[in-house]
């Protein structure tokens, strides 16, 4: 079984600005600011900021300039802002360990970013994302799919898909494959596009075909950030939409969940869990069965941000209470199924002083509880399962990430992702298949150079020989 994580968020300045920063990039809420951007990246990110906050990538969006409350949406600002949770600190800071043998391979030369990661069969890996094409003073997004065939080496090549209907200017935010004959890619929607909804594509083993997922009436923009293709007739996509409010100059984000029945997408009826002044949205989804599906994200309000957990029982979607975090602001970005049917959700938390830390929740079939992480663990951006062991992709400071693998003895081990001075690696997705782990990220090709998508691949044996990090998997108080 291939375990995978579906994130879909792009680190905003991943827009790969030119060295002069003269291009105006546009972005959707799936974009967030990269941790250590180059000056050129920062300039393009600033130019795109007003559109990013509103959830559109269009060149003319007058409402976006008058949507101050959407600035509270953490995902568009780099994810939910969160911090140290004393109840979650279960051990010392990460120690230096023997690194796994990671092999780094560029997915594309430049002017591109990868977002989604999937493995349709034992020898094929797909990366979904976009290439960027300068057009006058702007950058056009070209949805792109890349493929690696392990039988032919480690290099990546573009794979043809169905042509996107004009004038679609977007990305493939995520891809998920149940088999070599069943896969789904999900993208974006903006009101100036004529497709009428969020663009998606379905793979039947022979060809990719376009399909449009409906959006709420009057939506200015919408996005699906994550997909789970459970069977040919049962797939899910989650994200959000920007919709009008009673104030004609304002808008808010609402969660969006779509179901694919093999022929068409249908928007699920959801409870409204957000605040009329802010909203809510989803970042990830995982399906255990037709009547057992979890979606996670964040709910925003004037008092802060909180984790959002929603469950589908085969008939209805309903919000499920998580553990009490007190006054801590927090949000969830990733969810996956672990051993013995446990469900894990990861994200980040922010204390009153603004300090960020990782957040890990566990569902035992009855209730959600917090799980302890080693002291100093940064925000959890992705999680997956490798041979029954949970693996986390975590931030560990400016321009650095690491992968932590949990063991059956309740300890974490650092898998030692390589770092490069002056060329920080930002992690976007992670996938585990057997003993192989792939991390998808972006890294500048040289100090101060253009960023490009890369994969880091390592074979991690079950008995990984590294010094463990103490104090993990201890369930915190509810």
Features:
Methylamine Dehydrogenase, Chain H; 47% strand; five-stranded antiparallel β-sheet; signal; LigA protein; disordered N terminus; mainly beta
Question: Can you describe this structure?
Answer:
By secondary structure, this protein is mainly beta. It has one domain (2-469): 7 Propeller (Methylamine Dehydrogenase, Chain H), CATH 2.130.10. It has one helix spanning 39-54; strands spanning 2-4, 10-11, 31-32, 89-91, 103-106, 112-121, 124-135, 138-149, 157-158, 174-179, 182-186, 188-190, 198-203, 208-213, 221-231, 234-244, 251-260, 265-267, 279-289, 292-301, 304-312, 317-319, 329-337, 343-350, 356-363, 368-370, 373-374, 380-386, 389-395, 401-406, 412-414, 426-433, 436-444, 451-459, 468-469. The strands form 9 sheets. It has a 5-stranded antiparallel beta sheet with strand order 1-32-33-34-5, with no helix packed on it. Strand 19 (279-289) and strand 20 form a beta hairpin. Mean pLDDT is 78; it is low at 1-97 and 464-478. Residues 151-160 have a biased composition (Basic and acidic residues). Residues 1-25 form the signal peptide.
CATH class: Mainly Beta
Helix proportion range: under 10%
Number of domains: 1
Tally of DSSP β-strands: 35
Architecture, according to CATH? 7 Propeller
CATH homology group: YVTN repeat-like/Quinoprotein amine dehydrogenase
Strand content: over 45%
Characterize the main sheet. Answer: 5 strands, antiparallel
Which structural class best describes the helix and strand composition?
A: mainly beta
By DSSP (H or I, 4+ residues per run), the number of helices equals 1
Question: Mean pLDDT, rounded to whole units?
Answer: 78
For the biggest β-sheet, the strand order reads: 1-32-33-34-5
Poorly predicted runs: 1-97, 464-478
> Which assembly state applies to the chains in this document?
single chain
Q: What is the CATH topology assignment?
A: Methylamine Dehydrogenase, Chain H
Which descriptor suits the 3D outline?
A: globular
